[in-house]
From TrEMBL:
This is non-specific serine/threonine protein kinase. One of its GO terms (biological process) is defense response. Belongs to the protein kinase superfamily. One of its GO terms (cellular component) is plasma membrane.
Length: 407
């Protein structure tokens, strides 16, 4: 099985190391509904839950910033410091001293990303606090580092490490950035899978609930990190097979059984991972209203090709210009098909997904990197020998829901 728990993964770490997060805009939607399925095995990592707001805000791992400090760090939130925008608000680039974590002059010290919540944001205080709660305790190379926060009157801000390459969404779908090579796409898929696996296999399981390309941030070496934990939920405990909750997610990524019933499990995240895997293969968005007919929904359009080795090329990203491992692409496509299975129980666990993806990192499956990526450190090949059964299986498509409200 894949190793979800990197040697540097930890809970309640005693030190904060960071260098700064760029967050891109994304639209999430909420449906409404009521909640069952199996839960994976757990690691020894455990979160003390529940915690009061006071306990969350007094975390020894997080620095409380004053609003004036962050105004100074971001040059008074000047427009030229803006690096991202979403339903939650705005993200600004700032600078703080690496040792004292005090605001420093622009261009000196450590670069950070400051997320400033809109006062009228749908995300609101509850989700701001949820993000503080989880990222204040969970630490892993594939989770974005939260450095501190500011709660000053109506102002709510979060301070993260800065992710120099922005979001996966930007690199896959927007004009300008050099296309990601096949090797880098595999690297991103593996890293993102490790992040989800870490959350799912914790003793106190965490369901991410908003896995999508815009929430996968990339550092200077294209290492992926999961960001935005405002929708994260504690997994089921005891005899429970699922968590019943209001359905909130993103069109095109949310698992169909979750949308239909409100029953949330780790397998809901697995479905979302399958969608992102197809995005990495095809270079297309999960939902694209500029397309016509079935092509508007990536899963519906791509699914007939995923299990067909001879037809798979029809959905592959043309920006790859054929520079990819055909065997590796078929393995990834077959894996995506399993993640999108109609029955949540039939989907693989993230540890199985990770083990299968790690096989693709072997040198024989990694074509040359593109020029912009030539300085990236190679990732070591996996030593695991239990890849998931890659037999294609049928699964449903997530059809548009009625009564959707936009975050």
């Amino acid at each position: 099985m894949g190793n979800c728990l990197d040697s540097t993964a930890r809970v309640d770490a005693h030190a904060i190391s960071a260098s700064g997060v760029s967050k891109n805009s994304s639209r999430t939607i909420g449906f409404s509904a009521p909640s069952g399925l199996t839960t994976p095995s757990r690691s020894s990592l455990s979160l003390p839950t529940p915690r009061s707001e006071g306990e969350i805000l007094s975390s020894p791992n997080l620095k409380p910033f004053s609003f004036n400090e962050l105004k100074s760090a971001t040059r008074n939130f000047r427009p030229d410091s803006l690096v991202g925008e979403g339903g939650f608000g705005y993200v600004f680039k700032g600078w703080i001293d690496e040792n004292t974590l005090m605001a420093s002059k622009p261009g000196s010290g450590m670069v950070v990303a400051v997320k400033k919540l809109k006062q009228e944001s749908f995300q609101g205080h509850k989700e701001w606090l949820t993000e503080l709660d989880y990222l204040g305790q969970l630490h892993h190379p594939n989770l974005v580092k939260l450095i501190g926060y500011c709660l000053d009157g109506e102002n709510r801000l979060l301070v993260y490490e800065f992710m120099a390459k922005g979001s996966l969404e930007n690199h896959l779908f927007r004009r300008g950035p050099q296309p990601l090579s096949w090797a880098t796409r595999v690297k991103i898929a593996v890293g993102a899978a490790r992040g989800l696996c870490f959350l799912h296999d914790a003793k106190s399981q965490v369901i991410y609930r908003d896995f999508k390309a815009s929430n996968i941030l990339l550092d200077a070496d294209f290492n992926p990190k999961l960001s935005d934990f405002g929708l994260a939920k504690a997994g089921p405990t005891g005899d429970r097979t699922h968590v019943s909750t209001q359905v909130i997610g993103t069109h095109g990524y949310a698992a169909p059984e979750y949308v239909a019933t409100g029953r949330l499990t780790a397998k809901s995240d697995v479905y979302s991972f399958g969608v992102v895997l197809i995005e990495l293969l095809s270079g297309r968005r999960a939902v694209d209203k500029t397309k016509v007919g079935v092509e508007q929904n990536l899963v519906e359009w791509a699914k007939p090709y995923l299990g067909d080795r001879r037809k798979l090329f029809r959905i592959m990203d043309t920006k790859l210009e054929g520079q990819y491992s055909q065997k590796g692409a078929y393995t990834a496509a077959s894996l995506a098909l399993q993640c999108l299975s109609a029955e949540a129980k039939a989907r693989p666990r993230m540890s199985e997904v990770l083990a299968a993806l790690e096989q693709l990192e072997a040198p024989k499956n990694a074509p040359k990197l593109s020029p912009i990526e030539h300085q990236m450190s190679p990732t070591s090949a996996s030593k695991f020998h239990s890849p998931v059964n890659l037999k294609p299986s049928s699964s449903p498509f997530l059809s548009p829901r009625q009564g959707v409200r936009t975050r």
